[in-house]
Write a structure and sequence with these properties.
- The complex is a heterodimer of chains A (about 525) and B (about 325).
- With about 525 residues, chain A is an alpha+beta fold.
- Chain A has seven helices and 30 strands.
- In chain A, the strands form seven sheets. In chain A, strands 23-24-25-26-27-28-29-30 form an eight-stranded antiparallel β-barrel. In chain A, strands 2-1-3-7-9-13-8 form a seven-stranded mixed sheet, sandwiched between helices. In chain A, strands 17-16-19-20-22 form a five-stranded antiparallel sheet.
- In chain A, a hairpin with a 7-residue loop joins strand 27 and strand 28.
- Chain A is elongated.
- Chain A starts with a helix and ends with a strand.
- Chain B is about 20% helix and about 35% strand.
- The relative contact order of chain B is 0.14.
- In chain B, strand 15 and strand 16 form a beta hairpin.
- The longest helix of chain B has 28 residues.
- Chain B starts with a helix and ends in an 11-residue tail after the last strand.
- Chain B has a 15-stranded antiparallel sheet.
- The chains are: A alpha+beta (about 525), B alpha+beta (about 325).
- Chains A and B meet through strand 25, strand 26, strand 27 and strand 28 of A and strand 1 and helix 2 of B.
- Strand 28 of chain A pairs antiparallel with strand 1 of chain B.
Chain lengths: ~525, ~325
């Protein structure tokens, strides 16, 4: 309650009255990579996409005023801010009241946002936002140790948790929300497919945070919800609890409405008569996309159209029900029609990305066809094209996420003839043994369709035995460097089918030196050993 | 780590290469083969020739007796093939292994230690004279000494969809190396062997001539052979042999056969007091005499000449 009182004070100064027309501008930045000394994040881009989407659907942000930067560098962010500032100045010149929303999900280290290999010092960002032209600037930083920015001069740090007031005077200034304190890591979760803070902020903006059930989620409500849920979610985590922070430098008062959940009139309604408790909404991937704490009032969660599963967790079982949300419709949840399920039937599967991106082995069997770039041997060519059977062992994420190292072997055979004007046509049996290694990168391992590309080197041992036993058998062995690419299609968690193509350089140097090549087209059945 | 990489690289490089060569096949094609040149006579396994002993108990020659010409043919073919094997045995062995070295217009096998001549080495060299002409030789030398030719050959290849068609010749100048290379007794009794062959037109033909060392006795049954094979599978062999009889010092015998077994033989005195005297004998599928005729006065004639099989060249 002490926190609540303090936050009242803050927002009495910071609140934004809604009487004047306000034009909103938004810059949403998601960057999974943080450069040297950081691990690739899994969901930073998704976080930015999600907030970008929510503010466009429910937050009064026009699509042309909402910039989304994914995997961009510090210059790109600065340029985007410059662009928005121009637009803001133009809007102000037209007499419009303006709000700038700046959202960042990614790495932060040593006082800087880490955008790939580039850095954006938090101090300079803060200074820019502080002096920016928008009447109201709201910055949300979801990054490790992002609380650093709220400890520094220029903004007063608010207590961690407050309750809004009914202040109405239009506010001007800067509000900064951060996902963690200055000495804390910000954590992600596979079950929710997001960082904890951004997930809770997002689900709060969808309606979970609408504490007075007036159909509008204010900055205060969103922060209060995100704070409480983030702390609770991370309390038992290995990295320890994560405490979002809030700071402001404002004049005036009135609360800032972030989202209007009634605006689109689509989503799921948990009616007043539904049992109290926490309801989780799970999407078709098995990822929790929203959660709502139902007390005495009804709860509206403004979800996009789609198929969902709602879940309530009771001490001894789960209550599970399907939810279909159609465009422009609010679906009322009928908890009485939920099914009882065992805990083992929990529909929450999570993204599985951590397992996917962990270092793990896979084994494949393959059938492929090697076509040699040469004349047919019957017309004087050197090596025949042949089908092969093979096997491959791959260590995924060996050199980092996405990078895989594989070893493979194969055996091919065919019957052919070698021909020429002086030798006629000489039949022979051809065999090919290959030993290879490849290094490649797999994109979107968490998806069903996984393209990959890389380099491959093979040691080929070729042999031909002539039907005419009076002729000496011939062999040739050579290293063949090449490139490889393919598309893996998951048909279950562990089993995939892969279409693959390789192109190799083949040097021949017995009779003469010739540069040949081969193309290899194959299909693989792949089994991944993952947790 | 660096040493490991170096080792792996060296092992890998050592494993690279091989003997994969279409050109090797062209060169190997220029070497004659015993199987291509040997005389192929009908098999007796499916025929019903009477035991020779049955005929021996009779007085005089009778129709139905085992054919003398056929027996001569078998022996001549056997000797002919043995002679070819003697000449081409080393070539047949060499072809089964990859060349030791290559240039753009030559292939060399060896030198190898000559197991029959300790202290000596053998090598086979084929040179491409022009697009279709090949010259080859088998050479012998004392270890690290100078090579001498023990076998010389040429081959003019014919462009064809069938391998090894063309014309060729082989010469073995035995007298040039008889004193330094240990030889088979039959070889030692010769001065020179010459073989010519034609495999790109019908009939296929192989001529083999022996120059016998003056005064020497050889186990060979003839002074020379000519073997022919026709497209329909029929064949013939002509051989010349010497006798000690004054009336017939040199006799030329030509026998021919159908692939089904029946055939005929013609013997004529080429040197001696009875020059021109000749005998014709025909045999049927059972390799028994179906016709026999002596050309001289009071010579025997058995059967009907119309029962003889018709053969080209007779």
């Amino acid at each position: 309650m002490r926190h609540a009182l303090l936050f009242v004070c803050v927002l009495s100064t910071a609140a934004l009255a809604q009487s004047a027309p306000t034009r909103r501008f938004g810059l949403f930045v998601g960057q999974n990579e943080g450069g040297e000394g950081t691990k690739t994040l899994l969901y930073a881009r998704d976080d930015a996409r999600r907030l970008h989407d929510i503010f466009q659907r429910l937050g009064g942000l026009k699509s042309e005023d909402a910039l989304l930067l994914l995997d961009q560098n510090a210059d790109d962010v600065n340029n985007a801010l410059t662009e928005l500032e121009k637009r803001i100045n133009a809007a102000k010149a037209r007499g419009e009241r303006t709000t700038l929303l700046f959202y960042y999900s990614g790495h932060a280290k040593d006082g800087s946002l880490r955008l790939g290999d580039t850095k954006l010092p938090m101090e300079s960002l803060k200074a820019r936002l502080t002096s920016g032209p928008a009447d109201m600037r709201v910055a949300v930083l979801d990054a490790c140790r992002s609380g650093t920015v709220t400890r520094t001069k220029g903004a007063r740090r608010a207590p961690a948790f407050e309750v809004e007031t009914d202040a109405t005077r239009q506010a001007k200034g800067l509000v900064i929300l951060t996902s963690s304190a200055s000495d804390e890591d910000s954590q992600e979760s596979d079950l929710i497919g997001a960082s904890y803070f951004s997930y809770h902020l997002a689900t709060g903006l969808l309606g979970s945070a609408d504490s007075i059930a007036d159909g509008r989620v204010t900055l205060n409500e969103a922060y209060a919800w995100a704070y409480e849920r983030t702390v609770a979610s991370t309390a038992d985590s290995a990295a320890g609890p994560q405490h979002p922070t809030f700071s402001f430098d404002l004049a005036g008062n009135g609360d800032l409405v972030l989202t209007d959940i009634l605006k689109r009139r689509e989503g799921v309604l948990i009616p007043r008569e539904a049992p109290a408790g926490t309801y989780f909404i799970i999407d078709s991937r098995g990822v929790v996309v929203a959660e709502a704490v139902k007390a005495d009032d009804q709860r509206l969660i403004a979800l996009s159209p789609g198929s969902y599963v709602a879940k309530r967790r009771l001490p001894d079982r789960l209550r599970i029900g399907k939810v279909e949300i159609t465009s422009g419709q609010i679906t009322t949840l009928d908890e009485a029609r939920f099914d009882n399920k065992k805990f083992s039937d929990d529909p929450v599967k999570g993204t599985g990305i951590s397992a996917t991106w962990s270092r793990h082995w896979s084994l494949s069997v393959s059938g492929h066809y090697q076509a040699v770039f040469d004349r047919p041997t019957a017309s004087g060519g050197l090596f025949p094209s042949a089908p092969l059977l093979g096997a491959e062992a791959t260590l995924h994420n060996f050199f980092g996420r996405g990078f895989a190292l594989a070893i493979d072997g194969g055996y091919g055979w065919t019957s052919s003839t070698v021909g020429g004007s002086l030798i006629g046509s000489i039949p022979y049996d051809y065999s090919l043994i290959t030993f290879g290694a490849s290094l490649f990168y797999e994109w979107n391992q968490e998806n069903r369709f996984i393209p990959y590309a890389g380099v491959h080197i093979s040691f080929n041992i070729m042999n031909r035995v002539f039907e005419d036993q009076a002729l000496a058998n011939q062999t040739y062995s050579i290293f063949t460097p090449g490139i490889a690419g393919g598309l893996k299609v998951r048909i279950s968690k562990s089993i995939s089918i892969v279409a693959r193509a390789r192109v190799h350089y083949l040097l021949y140097n017995v009779d003469e030196t010739r540069s040949l090549g081969s193309a290899d087209f194959g299909a693989l059945l792949d089994y991944e050993f993952r947790d | 780590m660096n040493r490991s990489l170096l080792l792996i690289s060296l092992v890998g490089l050592a494993g690279c290469g091989g003997n994969w060569s279409n050109s090797d096949l062209v060169f190997a094609n220029a070497l004659p083969r015993t199987d291509d040149l040997k005389a192929n006579i009908p098999s007796e396994s499916s025929t019903t020739q009477p035991l020779e002993g049955v005929a021996m108990r009779r007085d005089g020659l009778m129709l139905g007796d085992p054919s003398v010409s056929w027996n001569l043919t078998k022996n001549a073919a056997k000797d002919f093939n043995n002679a070819l094997l003697m000449v081409l045995g080393i070539v047949d062995q060499v072809r089964k292994v990859a060349p030791t070295s290559r240039t753009s217009n030559s292939r060399t096998w060896g030198p190898f230690a000559d197991s029959n001549n300790p202290g000596r080495e053998l090598q086979v060299v084929i040179e491409r004279v022009d697009e279709k002409n090949f010259a080859w030789r088998v050479q012998s030398r004392p270890n690290n000494g100078e090579f001498i030719n023990v076998l010389e050959g040429n081959f003019l290849a014919n462009e064809s969809t069938t391998a090894r068609l063309g014309t060729g010749s082989i010469r073995i100048p035995v007298k040039d190396f008889r004193d330094v290379v240990k030889l088979d007794l039959n070889f030692s009794a010769l001065d020179e062997i010459r073989v010519t062959y034609v495999t790109d037109v019908w009939p296929r033909r192989v001529d083999m001539d022996f120059d016998i060392k003056p005064g020497a006795v050889t186990g060979l049954s003839a002074l020379g052979y000519t073997g022919m094979l026709r497209e329909d599978g029929s064949g013939s062999i002509r051989f010349l042999y010497a006798t000690t009889k004054p009336e017939a010092e040199e006799v030329e015998i030509t026998t021919g056969w159908k692939p089904t077994g029946e055939g005929r033989g013609f013997g004529i005195v080429r040197k001696g007091t009875s020059v021109g005297a000749n005998v014709t004998e025909c045999w049927g599928r059972g390799f028994t005499i179906s016709y026999y005729a002596e050309s001289w006065a009071n010579g025997t004639t058995l059967g009907n000449a119309g029962d003889c099989v018709a053969l080209e060249g007779f």
